[in-house]
Amino acid sequence: MTTESKWRANWPVNGFSATVEEGGPWWRIPLKHLLIILLSAYFLFFFRMSSYDLWSPDEPRYAQVAREMLRSGDWIVPHLNGQIYTEKPPLYFWLVAALSKPLGDVNELTARFPSATASLLLMLLTYFFGSWLLGRREALLGTLIMATSAQFVGIGRIGVIDMLLALSISAALCLFCAAYARRAVAFYLAGFASLAPAALAKGPVGLVVPVAVMFVFIGSEIVLRREGAWRESLRFTLCLVAGLALVALVVAPWWRAAYVQSEGVYGSISVLAKQTGGRMFDSYSHRRPFFYYLYNIPWQLLPWTFFIPLTVRTLKREANLRAHQGLRFLFVWFAAIIVFFTLISGKRSQYILPLFPAASLLMSWALIKRNPFEGRLRERNEYWVPCAGLALASAVALPVFTIISYVYLREIFWFALAAAIVGETGLFLVARRLMNIPPLSALLGVAVATILISAALFGYVAPAADKYLSARSFCTAVRGAIEEGDSLYFYQTYRPNINYYMGRNMTRLNSNEEVMQALGKDENIYVVLEHKRLQLLEAGDFLILDQIARGQVGSRDLVCVLVHHAG
Q: Where are the chain's structural domains?
């Protein structure tokens, strides 16, 4: 039996398009495809990764939790500013702390490296899954579409949990799809086992989202009366019970230890209810209207937003979702996540990151289905129109970026001006040539241009934004004015970026009475607060304040003052 026939015998497709192409089965990645993926990932996520500081709201918070884990030696219960941090499970903090341990402290590189690595792994996962489901050409284009989308690049470049969660959920869904196609219990269990990192990174939502997608897909199989759907749904349900038990075996030892060590503060049912049910049904943060993602998705998919109409039209006309289970699974993956996060009250743009592999593969299938290999771009209106729209938007964006840099980032103005001149000239010179190349070359050109622009923006422009977005300069001024043993507090605020770049924990004082209590312990104290709250602190005539530092950190005007008793 040949390699190809063995592969087909071992992988019954059951309506899924598991394609064996020239060059061998799907799991043999061509060297040029691997190099494209690795080089793209390097410039998108790793290039000059530590060239700019940690920015609020999430990066310095998570870095500080990892730092306190490293300094205290307590790897069980996360802490932030000396207090138990119940907002997130510890997996991401474990990774950052482990990477930072040889260096002695958390820095920009170690804080971002897990997210960047998860981005690369998700690219490889999308490629292999797309190769099996659709074919290598669709897989490579889909991987590049996903990796160069604005939201994916933005999240992969910062030290947050969401990319790790997206990787875990996507791995579970890919394994579920393979298990359903092969009718393989082992693959079901492997898929559920891959959800253990999701549970340890984000909590119950890491389990709820992928399981919901799985149930919706199986429900579609039953509604369409696919052969063996009821029998397979029973097999899936039994595997679900066993899989969740497997996840519990992995998570429970840590959860139990955290609960006991924190004396019930961490891991209690009330905390779980607040962090999960509270965010879903009555969110105390990030409340958005139900149509939030309708206007949010277009910018997330830039520059590929211009190809959405072509994708929708092709899927509507040529995708037989009833017969092609693979395409239907991708559609369910995409739609179920959109509906799920639309229905919950708390919404953020990065919450829907797990749908990017499905959305990108659907788009790549549609673009390849229209046969971009033949003809010239000028003769193919379905490709020419979105490419022209993208070129026009780019021509407008370059001078706008130059103006913004002149107003806010004067130190990179000449760089921005040179980039705008080169970009506009390049667009003009290349436009006519692009009209005579195959549409596929234009699509790959969009990906390459996005990679280079992203590398330039994050590698060279982002560091110039530190003076507006980073707390480092403000904290440096404060540290230069106080002694190591001086008492430093927050007043009616808490800023994780200040906490991180000060390199010490700072108690929050909520009233002048608490300020007086602090003065009872020390003759002089230093207080960090927003400038607009300074009058509240000055209200007590028993206080004398000397301002030692002031700085604009993001949208907040912060000051540090010396407080001591009058007389």
A: 27-369, 377-467, 471-565
